Amino acid sequence: MGFWLFNDSGSWDFGEYSTFLADIKNPNGANIQLRVDVTDINGETRTNYFAIGAYASRRIGASNFGPLAADFTRADGWWGAENGLDIENIDSVRIYIWEEGTSANTFIVDNVKVASPETATFEKLSFEDQTVPAFAYFLNATSEIVSQGATDGTKALKVNYGAGGFPSVRFLPDEPFDWGAGTCLTFDVTNPSNEGNTVYIKVVDGSGNETVGRTTIKANSTTSAYMSFNTR
To answer: What does pTM read for this prediction?
Structure first.
C-alpha cells in the first residue's frame, strides 16, 4: 500500500550528495516498515526501509545513491542498485508500507523534498592525506589513520577507546558549521571487535541546543549511520 511520485516533464536530477526527506506519521496501533523505492531511467531501484513504531512520527532520509552494498543488519536498511543509481535521471519514487506480517494500512506523509548540502560549510571528511582534522579532539581516546574499514577511498580514522569515562571524538570548528536546511549527517562506521557496540552521536548548535542519535553495529561489521534534522 502506498503511492508513486513521477515527474510529468521527464526525469529528476537529485544532484550529488542529496537526501530524499519526508516526515512520516504512523497512526496505527502496530509497528510498520515504511519503504522508499528510488528508480532511475534505466530501471535500477534502490530500496530504503525504515522502522516506525505504533503512533510514532519520524523524519526519514534516504541518501548515498552511489555504489553501495545491501545492509539488512538494522531496523533501517537498504538494498538494490548496488552499482549505484543514475542520480541525474531519477524516474520515480515510491513510498509504501511493507504489508507482510502487519495489519496496519495507513500512514501520513508530509514535507517531502530532496535537499542538497550545496550551501553547507561542512565538507566531507576525508582521511586520504593520512592526517586527522585539526578540529577533532579526543577524550579518553587515541586515533590513527588505517586502511581497515575504509569505504570512501583507502583510508579511514580509527578511534581507540581508553579506560576513562565517556571516551569520544569531538569535532569542534573555530566557526560553527552551516549545514543548510533539510540536510542529513551521514557517516560509515566499522566495529572491528567481536562484540556488538552502540555508537552515540551528539550534535550541539551555537545556542547550546542538542540532539542525540545512536546506531547499533554488529560485531565485525560496517554500517552507515544517518542523522537528519527536522527543519522546514
So the answer is: 0.56
